[in-house]
Amino acid sequence: MRHHVVLVSLLALLIGSTVWVTSLGKVGIYTTFSYGDLLYSAWAHFKMVLISVALASAIGVPLGILVTRPGLEKLALPVIGGANIGQSIPSLAVIAIMAPMLGFGLRSAIVALVIYGILPILRNAYVSIKSIDPAIIEAARGMGLTRMQIARKIELPLARPVIMAGIRISTVITVGTAELAVLVGGTGLGKITLTGVFAREALIILQGAAPTAAMAITLGFLLSKAEQWMTPRGLKVGAEIL
Amino acid sequence: MIRLKKVSKVYPDGTEAVRGVSFSIEKGELCVLLGPSGCGKTTTMKMINRLVSVTTGKIFIDGKDNAAMNEDALRSNIGYAIQDVGLFPHMTVGKNIATVPALKGWPKARQMQRARELLQLLRMDPEEFINKYPRELSGGQRQRVGVARALGADPPVLLMDEPFGALDPITRVDLQDELLKIQQEIRKTIIFVTHDIYEAIKMGDKIALMNEGRLVQYAPPADLLFRPKDAFVAGFVGADRALKGLQLIRAQEVMRREAPTVSLDESAAIAKERMKQEGTDRLAVIDAEGRFTGWMESAELEMGDKVRAAMTTKGVTATKHAVLSEALSLMLTSGLKVLAVVDRMNRFEGVVTFEDIQASLKKVACDEDSA
Question: Is the ipTM of this complex over 0.85?
Fold first, then answer.
């Protein structure tokens, strides 16, 4: 409940300041962006995040699960390690590298965002399967469940909340990183923020940054609700915490 | 029923876990695989349902080579219970128990009917527990559900890998007694792995003692105790053989069923009279339903007119299935030299005294000398 109060006041503050700056109309010698510009950029930003996270999930979840399978376990270290390296390069650098490689445009931006956002998804998918109590799997095998049945009826339901958490973390990170997409020819709220940066006008920076933060908070909240909804009831009850 | 013929297991790294083990288990028998950790007992058990493959040798179940069967079908016809239970946390108790029936495609109603039956068999109230989740249960309750799940589709064979190893001593004894009682009813062929000699002696019809991958001695518990085949067996069984021999005797074999009692509402005078008649200074006090409520000692006769007022309420109880070593340890911890034997409803059935246990101990020790 207290958590919700903080969340709502923060959102109100962010949206309020966006509306305030927009209503000023003029900051110094610069005209502020219009509501139309704002909505257009916010929508473009959201779409970019959505496409990137969807792609990162489509690659990261199956890959993370795949490297837990017997026979493929040897690949776990290079795959997770590779993703770790991807994440340890500064986001600005990942995006900057994309431009000379793939040219300017939305495509480069999305590829960069996928590379940068895949690690939490991949790592959580891997950990979600690996952290299942081995006794559960041994009991299932001992009772004659086939590998497919174990994956479908036992492993996936138990892994689901952790996988969802990875997607949530990645989404929140990607909303922020997508600010930089404009550098390689992408779109989004970064256009507004960077205009503020070049114009050295803090209020215009705020006009781009505040809605970005609001978007990150809102998506994070909605996805944490989805995570709770996808958690099997048996994992929510009882005194023990996973 | 189950026959192992020169079974060996060599792992790819060259470790010889099991070396040429041969023995057979009769239908309806509880066979304990016993030995120090790393002796190959669990590996041997897991080769029966092919969780581990044999390197050389053959295992026959009801005369059929288990290597020739489909491994998933083989396993679903063998109950499996392990120390860490491994209940599925996202499924209710009922669904957990019905795992194998569901695999076999039983109709839903029959699955739940079966789950109810098994909960009842393991003395858990079906109404209360069938819709609970594993996280809502205590350790003992989880292991009960684990055993119920192993019995799910009524398999003729049960494999149990240290099933009570993680439980506290009281719950463990409770579940051992429960399993023995159930076994008298259902007569499954059970392979029971443990490293605990006390548990082995108590549970096993036969014990297969293993060491370094070899079967050292395969015999009934009494033979293992008193006719050890070699120095390893004697050493493993330990010096306090007579004391361990108490594991072989149950309270029902020595208890006095005609022990004098007095009712809660009778007067102290009647109690005094009865003590004199029976030549004892202690009476078991029972209530109107025949439930044991405590002891009336001669020293307490003056403490009140009615037994209810005069008696001391302390007293320890055990069921008639309890083995004498447990009875002895109860006496030692309570400081009383007498133990009331009661049934599941706490109804009084008789007494076991310290002297009775001493006499049994002497008898066991004599057997040892003559052996």
Answer: no
